[in-house]
Amino acid sequence: LPIAYSDLQPSGICKIGPYRFVRHPFYFAYTLTWLAGSVMSQQIWYLIPTIIMLVIYWKLATSEEASLLKGPHGVEYDDYRHTTWKLFPRFF
Fold this sequence. Notes:
Distance between the termini: 24 Å
Number of strands: 0
Number of helices: 3
Helix content: 40-55%
Largest sheet: none
Oligomer: single chain
Shape: elongated
Low-confidence stretches: none
Radius of gyration: 15 Å
Structural class: mainly alpha
């Protein structure tokens, strides 16, 4: 897949490694980082930035997916969307 925030279309759809479980593993990792800070601080109000960032990642992922669906691999990506979750792993 191309770098985030770019208009480039991928040469194919990656479905191996972490992409088997989640369509946006980098956003998932970033979310875990924010969540770890909240958990380690044991401060409930630290969840606010985590939630804000999660919403931002969700919107970015949605925008990127809309572009992918319109591209040359749109049908393949649509099939892939039905087998994986957007930001959190789907193990079953």
